[in-house]
Amino acid sequence: MNEERIPRATAKRLPLYYRHLNLLYNQGKIRISSKELSESIKVDSATIRKDFSYFGELGRKGYGYDIAHLLQFFRNLLDQDEVASVALVGVGNLGTALLHYNFMKKGNTQIEIAFDTNREKVGEKIGDVPVYHVDDLEKELKRKEIKVVILTVPARAAQEVTSQLVENGVEGILNFTPSRLSVPSHVRVHHIDLSIELQTLIYFLKHN
Ligand code: ATP
Question: Is ipTM > 0.85 here?
Answer without folding.
Answer: yes
